[in-house]
Design brief:
The complex is a heterodimer of chains A (292) and B (417). Chain A has ten helices and two strands; from the N terminus they run H-H-H-E-E-H-H-H-H-H-H-H. Chain A is an all-alpha fold. Chain A has one domain: ABC transporter involved in vitamin B12 uptake, BtuC (Orthogonal Bundle), CATH 1.10.3470. In chain A, a hairpin with a 2-residue loop joins strand 1 and strand 2. Chain A is globular. Classes of the chains: A mainly alpha (292), B alpha/beta (417).
C-alpha cells in the first residue's frame, strides 16, 4: 500500500473517530457529574435522526440542524428531572438498569411510530460534492461535519474550562458535597449538563442521518463503540475522551486500510483491553474520589 | 333392602353407562379441540440488523393467514399463526423446539439469517417437522447442511449470482474485468463470496480486492477510499441488512461512479437508501412491479392493509404459507411426512409469477423465476417505491427453471437418513 493511501486512511480514521466523540463526550459528562451510566444515550441519537426526517420537510436540513438538537436537549432535561435525578445518590447499577429500560422503551416507541423498516434521507443538494486536498479527494459533507464537530468540542471545552458554569460543574464532579456546603445547588447544573450531553447526541443523529441507515435500533449500534471510547479515554477527562475517540477511529481505519477489515471491530476491543490492563483509569482518567 | 339393591344396580348401570359414554366421547372431545385450529409457527429476526426485513415477513405472513382463513382455512380448519422473534441461532433453535413440542405446530415457516436456518432445521429434523426457509440464502443449507425436513422458498446464493451474472455478462462487466467486493463477515457473506468467485473464475474475471466487513460496521469511508484507489471495473456487494443501505448512501456521498453490482439484495434496503443514492444492478426473487395478475393482487392487498408496497421478503413468507395451505387442502392432512412426499414428487405451485414453480427433489430448493432490477436515474423516479426497472423473468420462457440453480457438481446434497 502506498504512503499516500495510508495517510488517507489515517486521516479518514481520525475523522471517523469524531462521530463517536459527539456521543462519548455526553456520556462521559453525565457519568462524571451524576454517576449515571446512560445506556439510553444512543436512543437520543436515534431520536435526533428521526426528528431530522420529520422536521426537514418544514425546516429543511439547516432548520432541523438547529431545531432537532434543541428538542432532544429539552427531552433530556425532562428525563433528567423525572428519572435521572432519582438515582444520583444510589448505586450506579440501579441507574444502569433504569437507562437500559429507557433505551428499550425509546427503541420500541420509534418502531411503533415509524415502523421497523429503515427510512430514507439524503444529503441536501447544497452539501453534496467532493473536495480535493492535494491528492486526497474527500466528501464535502464530511468536511462540513468535521467543522461542526470541532466547533462543538471547542465550545464545550471553553464552557467547561473558562466559564463560571464550567467551574461549578468541575467542582461538582470532584466533590458535590463541598459544592453544596458552599451554598451552590447542583440541581440546575445537572439539568444543564444533561441537556448539553443529550443535545450533543441529538446533534450527532442529525449529522449522521444523511449518511447512515435510519432505523429504530440505530442507537444500539453507536452506543457500544461510544462506551469503548469513554472507557479508553478515562472518566472525567475531556481530552482523554477526545484522544480515545481519535485513537479508536484511527485503529479501525488503519485495520481496514492494511487489509484486516474483518478484525477492525475486534481491534477496538483489544485496544480497550490493553488500556485497561496498563491504565485502569483510562488514558488520561482523573482520580475521582467518590468513584474509587 | 330391595330398594337398596335396585339402587346399587342402577348405580352400576349408570356408572357403566358413563364410563361407556366417556370412553367414546373423550377422544371425540379431544379431536374437536385439535380440529378447531391448525397452528403454524413463524420464526424470523425482528431485532438486529435483519430486523427491518423480518418486519415485512411478519406483515406478509399475517396477510396470508387472513386470506387463507377467509377462504376456509387449511382442510377446513382455521389457521393460527404463532409468531416469534428468532433473535440469533441459539434462540431460534430454542424457540423452534418450544413451538414444535409445546405448541404442537404443524410446521415452521420463516427466517432470514442462514445461520439460524441451520439450527431450526436441526430441530425440525429431530422432531420430524416440516420447516420452510423463506430468507436464508447460503448454498450450504442446500448442500452440505441440507436436511430432509427443510425446504427453501428463498433462492440460494448460486441462483442470485447466476441471475444478476447474466445482466453483468451482457453489459461486458465480467470477462477480463476486475471486481472489488465487500462481503458481510458471517455465514451468508462467506458463502456468497465463494459462489461469486466461482462465477468470476468460470467467466474469465478477476478480483481486484475483497474485504470482509464486520456486521456491526456502519461507516464505509475507509473501504470507499480503497475502492477509489483500486479502480475496479465493478464494485460487487455481498452485504446484508442495514449494511447495504449504509454502503449505498456513502457511495453516493463519496461521488464514486464505478458500476455497482450486488449479489444479495432486499428491496427495503434500496428504498431506505432512497432516490439518488440507490445505484447498481441487483438480483431479486420477486419485486412489487412484476406485471402478473397474482403479483398485482398481492401488492394491492398488502398496500391496502399496510399503506406501503410489499418487498421481496414479504413475498417469501406470503408464498410459503400459500404453498402450505394449498398442499394441506389437497392432501387433507397436515402431517409433515405426507407434505414432504408431496413436495418431493414435484407438485406445482402458483408463485404469482409468469409460470408455476416446484421444489427440486435433490436439494429441496424452490425452482422459480428470478429478476434483475436496475436503479433508475434520479430524474426518472416518480415516487419513493418505484425506483428501479426490472429485467424480464430469468430464466426466459424457453429455458428450464433449473438453469440458474447450482448444479450437482457445484453444490451437492445428501439427505442424512
Amino acid at each position: 500500500m502506498s504512503a499516500v493511501l495510508l495517510a488517507q486512511q489515517i486521516l479518514n480514521g481520525l475523522l471517523d473517530g469524531v462521530y463517536y466523540l459527539l456521543i462519548a463526550l455526553g456520556l462521559s459528562l453525565i457519568f462524571s457529574l451524576g454517576g449515571i451510566v446512560n445506556l439510553a444515550h444512543g436512543a437520543f441519537y436515534a431520536i435526533g435522526a428521526y426528528l431530522t426526517l420529520v422536521l426537514s420537510p418544514y425546516l429543511g436540513f439547516g432548520g432541523s440542524f438547529v431545531a432537532a438538537p434543541v428538542v432532544v436537549a429539552l427531552l433530556g432535561v425532562v428525563i433528567e428531572r423525572t428519572l435521572f435525578s432519582r438515582f444520583y445518590r444510589s448505586d450506579p447499577i440501579l441507574s444502569l438498569l433504569m437507562t437500559f429500560g429507557l433505551a428499550m422503551v425509546a427503541e420500541q416507541a420509534l418502531r411503533m411510530i415509524f415502523g421497523a423498516p429503515p427510512l430514507s434521507y439524503s444529503i441536501p443538494q447544497w452539501l453534496r460534492g467532493q473536495v480535493q486536498l492535494g491528492s486526497f479527494i474527500y466528501s464535502f459533507y464530511r468536511v462540513v461535519l468535521l467543522g461542526i464537530a470541532a466547533a462543538c468540542i471547542a465550545g464545550l471545552w471553553l464552557l467547561l474550562q473558562r466559564s463560571s458554569f464550567g467551574r461549578v460543574v468541575r467542582a461538582g464532579v470532584q466533590n458535590p458535597d463541598m459544592v453544596g456546603a458552599l451554598g451552590i445547588s447542583l440541581q440546575p447544573y445537572m439539568s444543564a449538563v444533561a441537556a448539553l450531553g443529550i443535545g450533543l447526541a441529538g446533534l450527532a443523529g442529525v449529522l449522521l442521518a444523511p449518511i447512515y441507515s435510519i432505523h429504530p435500533a440505530m442507537g444500539q449500534e453507536i452506543i457500544t463503540p461510544a462506551f469503548v471510547v469513554v472507557v479508553i479515554g478515562g472518566l472525567g477527562s475531556f481530552w482523554g475522551v477526545v484522544a480515545a475517540a481519535l485513537l479508536v477511529g484511527l485503529v479501525k481505519g488503519v485495520m481496514v486500510g492494511i487489509g484486516y477489515s474483518a478484525a477492525s471491530t475486534a481491534a477496538i476491543y483489544l485496544l480497550m483491553l490493553l488500556v485497561l490492563l496498563f491504565r485502569p483509569r483510562g488514558l488520561f482518567g482523573e482520580r475521582i474520589t467518590r468513584f474509587e | 333392602m330391595s330398594n337398596n339393591q335396585v339402587t346399587r344396580r342402577r348405580l352400576l348401570k349408570t356408572a357403566g353407562g358413563i364410563a361407556l359414554l366417556s370412553g367414546i366421547s373423550a377422544p371425540a372431545v379431544l379431536r374437536a379441540q385439535t380440529a378447531e385450529v391448525i397452528k403454524i409457527g413463524h420464526l424470523t429476526p425482528r431485532t438486529g440488523f435483519l430486523g427491518p426485513l423480518g418486519e415485512y415477513a411478519v406483515m406478509a405472513a399475517d396477510l396470508a393467514v387472513e386470506e387463507i382463513n377467509a377462504a376456509g382455512g387449511m382442510a377446513g380448519r382455521k389457521v393460527e399463526l404463532l409468531k416469534e422473534d428468532s433473535v440469533n441461532p441459539q434462540t431460534a433453535s430454542t424457540k423452534a423446539e418450544r413451538l414444535i413440542e409445546r405448541d404442537k405446530v404443524a410446521c415452521i415457516i420463516g427466517e432470514i439469517s442462514s445461520a439460524s436456518c441451520l439450527t431450526i432445521a436441526q430441530v425440525a429434523s429431530r422432531t420430524k417437522t416440516l420447516y420452510i426457509n423463506t430468507g436464508g440464502n447460503s448454498d450450504a443449507l442446500r448442500g452440505k447442511d441440507c436436511q430432509r425436513y427443510m425446504f427453501h422458498v428463498e433462492s440460494q446464493n448460486s441462483m442470485y449470482v447466476k441471475t444478476v451474472g447474466r445482466s453483468l455478462l451482457r453489459d461486458g462487466l465480467v470477462k477480463g474485468k476486475k471486481w472489488y467486493s465487500l462481503t458481510a463477515d458471517y455465514a451468508f457473506g462467506h458463502d456468497l463470496l465463494k459462489v461469486s468467485k466461482r462465477f468470476m473464475e468460470a467467466n474469465g474475471g478477476q478480483f481486484a480486492g475483497d474485504d470482509l466487513v464486520p456486521t456491526d460496521a456502519a461507516d464505509f469511508s475507509a473501504y470507499l477510499l480503497k475502492i477509489r484507489e483500486a479502480k475496479p471495473d465493478l464494485v460487487a456487494i455481498n452485504l446484508a441488512g442495514n449494511q447495504t443501505t449504509n454502503f449505498l448512501k456513502q457511495y453516493a456521498e463519496f461521488g464514486l461512479t464505478i458500476p455497482v453490482g450486488g449479489f444479495g439484495f432486499d428491496t427495503a434496503l434500496a428504498w431506505a437508501a432512497g432516490k439518488g443514492n440507490f445505484v447498481g444492478t441487483w438480483p431479486v426473487v420477486w419485486h412489487h412491479l412484476i406485471d402478473t395478475p397474482g403479483s398485482k393482487a398481492f401488492v394491492a392487498a398488502f398496500t391496502k392493509k399496510y399503506n406501503k408496497p410489499p418487498e421481496n421478503q414479504a413475498w417469501g413468507d406470503y408464498i410459503a404459507l400459500k404453498i402450505v395451505a394449498q398442499t394441506i387442502n389437497e392432501l387433507k392432512s397436515a402431517e409433515s411426512p405426507k407434505i414432504i412426499e408431496h413436495f418431493e414428487k414435484g407438485a406445482k405451485f402458483d408463485l404469482l409469477k409468469t409460470r408455476p414453480g416446484y421444489f427440486r427433489g435433490s436439494d429441496h430448493q424452490l425452482m422459480h423465476e428470478m429478476y434483475t432490477v436496475t436503479a433508475l436515474p434520479a430524474d426518472k423516479i416518480k415516487n419513493q417505491w418505484d425506483i428501479y426497472s426490472s429485467s424480464p423473468a430469468v430464466p426466459g420462457p424457453s429455458e428450464e427453471l433449473e438453469v440458474i440453480a447450482a448444479t450437482k457438481e457445484e453444490n451437492s446434497c445428501t439427505f442424512p437418513s
